[in-house]
Amino acid sequence: MTTPLRSHHEQSDRLPVTRYAVLLFLLTAALIAAVAITLVRNAKSSTWQQNETALAGSARVGASSFGTLRSNLRVQASQLATSLTLQRAVVTQDEAALESIAASHHAQIALAGRTVGTIARRPRIASSATIRDGGRLLATVTVALPLGKDVLALLGQAAPLPAHAALVLVHDGTVVAGGPIGARPRVKAGRTMLGGVAFAGQAVPLGVANASLLAVEPVSAIDAISERYRRLVFLAAIATLALAGALARRLARPIAQVVGEVAHLSRQAQTDALTGLANRRSLAERLDEELARARANGTSVSFVIADIDDFKAINDTQGHQIGDRIIRDAARALAGSVRELDLAARYGGEEFAIVLPGSSLVNARRSADRMRRAIMEIDVPSEAPRVTMSFGVAEFPTYASVDALVAAADAALYQAKRGGKNQVATATVEAQPRAVPADGAAELGSLA
Fold first, then answer.
1. Do residue 414 and residue 303 come from a single domain?
2. pLDDT digit string, tens, across residues 245-267
3. CATH number of 405's domain
4. What is the 3-state secondary structure (H, E, C) of the chain?
5. Are residues 334 and 209 in the same domain?
6. Among 124-133, 260-269, 369-378, which is the least confidently predicted range?
7. Per the domain annotation, does 321 fall within a domain?
8. Which residues are catalytic?
9. pLDDT tens digits, 5-63
10. Do residue 205 and residue 285 come from a single domain?
């Protein structure tokens, strides 16, 4: 008679454990799926951002090399025009010598009523120099390079490109080298379409002959990088789920406890307890990372320091409870005014800091003014004054180190405070400080 009772109790004891194990497995599966999706999404976004930045940098380097190429062509024309051999042939009208010089230098020599030699057909880049006898023009010497694969090869030697990227030379909206000759690049849904294939990239004008240089990489190649990472994340998620299923029943409670503690400690290490924003430690790590990335890619990073105006008076008259509420509301307003790739953090007390990757000083000032207006919309108790905030903005690479960038933004903040508060001040190295009224965004000159 006792055996059925023991069996019933054993089943009753196992039932909560089974439910707990299933719940733990489902929660683990959901957590792993969420983490995997977030990792894949962030990796894809980061890959696109890095590749587009690299392509833009390559196009700019190529365009700079094109300017050097034009300078070299001018030097070549000048050296040829000043050579004694050519000047003697021009003065003596030595036709054979003129033809030999023109052929050996791929130049065209224009004399009175006739020309000797030929240069590359259009599209081309050309440079000319003159030979004069006092004020009298004796001849004009022209050297040229065709806008084609040879020029593109020279530009490509100076411009570092991602593995699957290429440079494309465009003239009058038509490809002349590096892609389907005669094709016309067009932009569709934020991507450059070329020969029916979607590319990432952006054209940089070369400043001559309606020519531009385009650094492109197939969308499929960029997505393939993310796809490899996605497969690795998927396999890791499957393996983790299998392990969780095998251990869920035996280790349900210990695993749940450890996971909860680790998650709690991780959040505490990275976020501010009062506001939920990133803390100063996370801010320092992110700022180091963004400056290293910007230094490698030749891009900008802007840094903003913000401070609630007259906060001590608010605390003294309204109490710390109201002060804490205002700090939390200010944090929400700042977090709601920045992009997903930006980082808003609590810097300390009533101070906040924002990292704006890829933002120039002008764009960062606009972002800071948007935050300033959002702060002014915070609801406060009827007896409390309106909440305002002052902002200081500085940009890398104008300030080339973390310490210099933070110090410049901090100095700009004090400029905004001294200028009347509820303002945005920017740190530059070009102008002198000037005050701006407090009813709008202010740009207070320089901090030399």
1. yes
2. 766 666 655 544 554 455 455 56
3. 3.30.70.270
4. CHHHHHHHHHHHHHHHHHHHHHHHHHHHHHHHHHHHHHHHHHHHHHHHHHHHHHHHHHHHHHHHHHHHHHHHHHHHHHHHHCCHHHHHHHHHCCHHHHHHHHHHCCEEEEECCEEECCCCCCCEEEEEEEEEECCEEEEEEEEEEECCHHHHHHHHHHCCCCCCCEEEEEECCEEEECCCCCCCCEEECCEEEECCEEEEEEEEECCCCCEEEEEEEEHHHHHHHHHHHHHHHHHHHHHHHHHHHHHHHHHHHHHHHHHHHHHHHHHHHHECCCCCCECHHHHHHHHHHHHHHHHHHCCCEEEEEEEECCHHHHHHHHCHHHHHHHHHHHHHHHHCCCCCCCEEEEEECCEEEEEEECCCHHHHHHHHHHHHHHHHCCCCCCCCCCCCEEEEEEEECCCCCHHHHHHHHHHHHHHHHHCCCCCEEECCCCCCCCCCCCCCCCCCCCCC
5. no
6. 260-269
7. yes
8. 350
9. 344 444 444 445 566 677 767 777 788 888 878 887 887 777 777 787 888 888 888 88
10. no
**Least confident interval from 187-191, 281-285, 443-447:** 443-447
Please compute the mean of the pLDDT values over residues 377-388 and round it to a whole number.
Answer: 81
Residue 418 domain boundaries: 280-426
pLDDT at residue 179 tops 50: yes
Q: In this predicted model, what pLDDT tens digit does every residue of 305-321 receive, in sequence order? A: 999 999 998 888 888 88
Number of domains, the chain: 2
